[in-house]
Amino acid sequence: MAKYLGPVCRLCRREGEKLFLKGERCFTAKCSFDRRGFAPGQHGRTGGRGSDRASDYSRQLRAKQKARRVYGMFEKQFRRYYAVALKRRGLTGLNLLQTLETRLDNVIFRMGFAVNRAQARELVTHGHFTVNDRRTDIPSMILKPGDQVMVREGSRSTTFFKELKDIAETRNAATWLDRDLKNLSGRVARLPERAEIDGNLTEQLIVEYYSR
Questions:
Q1: pLDDT tens-digit profile of 39-85?
Q2: β-strand 134-136 against 148-151: which pairing, if any?
């Protein structure tokens, strides 16, 4: 499975806003975006983003790139999700965001069981979670309302999961998820509504980008 191995703070600087890719570190003084909030590269300090003069294509591309980086995937996989959303009934943009939100790694992150999606993805690939009582190591698994996620019994004795219950209490779970901290489990109660998904994402521009 391919994944981005470069500095993630560079991605935030390229998009001109915090994407919170490092979790709790993004809220501290160590955040690279707070110290160097300009775009990377030799033209970063001189307004290399050109946001004031951005063309329609540029705005569409940046909206797509931002969403892709927030959820941590490459173009081929992101385009595949768009194709799935296009075939479903309803608004294509909302269908896309709901599909991305119900990925297993994102659900674990939204439950507060990981500091960011990258950590959630790693925990899943190492086999620490079960879905409907079946062990899985596929972060991209799409969950449906009613699906239950739980920390695997064999993983509960590790230091990380022993401390997770207390740490997760400080993190808010998404309102469309039911979380049980006592049993380190959760359930997808329903699909998220648009207001419950990141408001900084502009799905209409993403649809326009792929509709060219």
A1: 665 545 555 544 457 799 999 999 999 999 999 999 999 999 999 99
A2: unpaired
Looking at the fold, whether 75 and 140 belong to one and the same domain comes out as no
Largest CA distance in the chain: 55
Alpha-carbon dihedral sign for residues 99, 101, 105, 108? negative
* Residue owning tokens 């959820």: 71
HEC string of the chain equals CCCCCCCHHHHHHHHCCCCCCCHHHHHCCCCHHHHCCCCCCCCHHHCCCCHHHCCHHHHHHHHHHHHHHHHCCCHHHHHHHHHHHHHCCCCHHHHHHHHHHCEHHHHHHHCCCCCCHHHHHHHHHCCCEEECCEEECCCCCECCCCCEEEECHHHCCCHHHHHHHHHHCCCCCCCCEEEECCCCEEEECCCCCHHHCCCCCCHHHHHHHHCC
Please indicate, yes or no, whether residues 97 and 108 belong to a single structural domain of this protein: no
CATH code of residue 129: 3.10.290.10
Among the listed residues 97, 104, 70, 101, the one whose alpha carbon sits nearest the alpha carbon of residue 174: 101
Reported pTM: 0.80
User: pLDDT per residue over 80-108, tens digit each?
Assistant: 999 999 999 999 999 999 999 999 999 99
pLDDT in tens, 156-185: 999 999 999 989 998 889 999 999 999 999
